[in-house]
Specification:
heterodimer, A: mainly alpha, 8 helices, 82% helix, B: mainly alpha, 3 domains, 84% helix, 0% strand
Chain lengths: 272, 278
């Protein structure tokens, strides 16, 4: 105890002798003293923070959690509706399977329409028939020659009147063009059947969202097919128009011939 | 972490006190004091925040949650509910979907069988054996009896004359005419068979429609359009056959016209010869 009192006295004496240093040390000590620890129970800052966080937590649970739960409920309802009513998987699979079944029918139709129907018995007619039924647009070049072999050529200028030659030529031309059109239409129809087959195949692997795109393409093909049908119908009407014109021409020729005969008879009687 | 900071402070203080007691001049004391102040300034703890600011921050967070986020969630919920109602009441009402499927089923029951009965009516009208046989084979929708058709055709219309019985030109034309007629009759048999398959496809599509959902119907629609393309192609093939037939008819008449012109020329020549002789 005495030692401690001596030590304090010594320190005070040192401070009295070194007043400046003592003041600096005092100031430094007061600055370097660590701040007092904050108590969780006594510090008002912590209490406010805890209350705030608790309020935030309950607000998050009620406001955001509740709102999200409501949205989740609606979303579940929509999802369930879409999966059971709008896009049920088993009905989609069933429709795809039906499309596969139709594919089989398409193949049967294709097979049916490919059975050969050739019937001619003579060499010239067999060649011509083969050309007509080929459904190959590349063979159209040979149609005129084969036609002439079977139906004969336009008579020479000395063998028939110019009027008769004109009529024969236009009739031959129309008959040949119509036959060529038939080859062309057969070729187009074959391609259309191929395209329909391909479209049907792609439907089998489509999704409900992509099927309408394929349907749009199929619609375009249908429009195209209608145009070809119209074109063929036009040729049919043309060939019938020519047939009608020929009938009329026959009547006109008959009338002209009758007049000529009358004139000849009149001349003969006059001479006698 | 806190203990480490306190130890550091303790060490610094001890060092500072030692330096202060051992300093020999005022200048050293001053330098030591300045170094201490600098050290305190650099490693000193940040100033404490006011309590009022913390409350304001918490309140602002609560305001954001109760205001902006709450309103946004309510809006999302409202929109999704509207969408759900739109789907279920306007776009895909279950009652109307059921009604549409019921209508398909009802129409199948009402129309399919009577139409098939009408379509299957026997139209054969020939009375004699050969024409009856030909008519029957022409209309049987089979594609594996073309030889029967050829035989029945020859029995009714006669066979091609022998080479000695007619001119080569006539024979050729007869053969071509018969061939094109037979070709078309065969094509019609094929077309009839394909027609049966087309009707089967239509029935299948209609059956599918009676069980479809809005999401599976586009498959059937697309396939129906593809079937229409095939059907249109078959129509074109029949049109092509008709074109051949009409063209052959025209060509036949024209060939007769050519022969008439040739015969007229021959007759004229003979009359001229006869007159010259007199």
């Amino acid at each position: 105890m005495r030692k401690a009192i001596d030590c304090v006295k010594g320190g005070l004496r040192w401070a009295w002798r070194h007043k400046f240093r003592a003041v600096v040390l005092l100031a430094a000590s007061s600055l370097l003293v660590p701040p007092p620890a904050r108590s969780q129970f006594l510090d008002p800052c912590c209490a406010i923070l805890a209350a705030g966080l608790s309020t935030i937590s309950s607000t998050l649970s009620n406001v955001i959690g509740g709102g999200l739960n409501n949205i989740l409920g609606v979303e579940k309802s929509i999802s369930n509706f879409e999966q059971t009513v709008v896009w049920p998987r088993h009905l989609i699979a069933q429709a795809q399977s039906l499309v596969g079944n139709l594919q089989g029918l398409f193949h049967q139709m294709r097979g049916v329409m490919q059975v050969p129907v050739n019937s001619a018995t003579l060499p010239a007619t067999q060649q011509f028939e083969q050309n007509l039924l080929s459904g190959n647009a590349k063979q159209i070049d040979q149609t005129s020659a084969r036609y002439t072999t079977v139906y004969g050529a336009v008579p020479s200028a000395t063998a028939a009147s110019p009027q008769a030659r004109n009529m024969i030529d236009i009739t031959d031309a129309m008959a040949q063009a119509t036959m060529k059109k038939a080859i062309e239409i057969d070729a187009l129809a074959d391609l259309e059947i191929q395209a329909a087959d391909q479209i049907n195949q792609s439907i089998q692997t489509a999704a409900p969202g992509s099927a309408p795109i394929i349907e749009a393409q199929a619609d375009a093909w249908l429009v195209r097919a209608n145009a070809y049908t119209q074109s063929a119908t036009a040729d049919l009407m043309r060939v019938r128009a020519i047939a009608l014109a020929n009938d009329s021409e026959n009547l006109k020729n008959g009338a002209a011939n009758a007049t000529n005969v009358q004139q000849q008879i009149y001349n003969l009687l006059k001479r006698q | 972490m806190d203990a480490l900071i306190h130890m550091l402070f303790g060490c610094l203080l001890a060092l500072f006190c030692y330096g202060m007691t051992k300093a020999k001049s005022r200048r050293q004391v001053l330098a030591l004091a300045l170094a201490g102040v600098l050290a305190i300034a650099l490693i000193g703890p940040p100033p404490a925040r006011a309590q009022g600011s913390l409350v304001a921050v918490i309140q602002s967070v609560l305001n954001v949650i109760n205001g902006l986020i709450h309103t946004a969630l309510n809006s999302i919920n409202s929109v999704r509910t509207t969408v759900s109602n739109l789907y279920q009441q306007a776009t895909w009402p279950v009652a109307l979907i059921g009604q549409a499927k019921a209508m398909v089923t009802q129409m199948i029951g009402r129309y399919r069988s009577p139409m098939q009965t009408i379509f299957d009516l026997n139209l054969n009208s020939a009375t004699l054996p050969n024409p009856s046989a030909l008519e029957s084979v022409m209309r049987d929708h089979q594609i594996n009896d073309f030889s029967n058709l050829t035989t029945a055709f020859a029995s009714t219309y006669g066979a091609l004359p022998a080479t000695t019985a007619t001119s080569p030109a006539d024979r050729t034309m007869m053969d071509m005419d018969d061939a094109l007629a037979l070709d078309n009759l065969k094509t019609l048999k094929e077309s009839d068979a394909a027609d049966d398959l087309t009707l089967q496809a239509a029935n299948n599509i209609e059956n599918g429609a009676s069980q479809a959902a809005p999401g599976s119907a586009p498959f059937l629609t697309a396939s129906a359009v593809a079937s229409s393309i095939v059907s249109q192609a078959l129509t074109q093939k029949m049109l092509a056959a008709e074109l051949r037939e009409e063209a052959a008819h025209l060509a036949h008449e024209n060939a007769l016209r050519k022969r008439g012109a040739a015969m007229t020329g021959d007759v004229n020549a003979e009359i001229l010869k006869l007159l010259e002789r007199k």
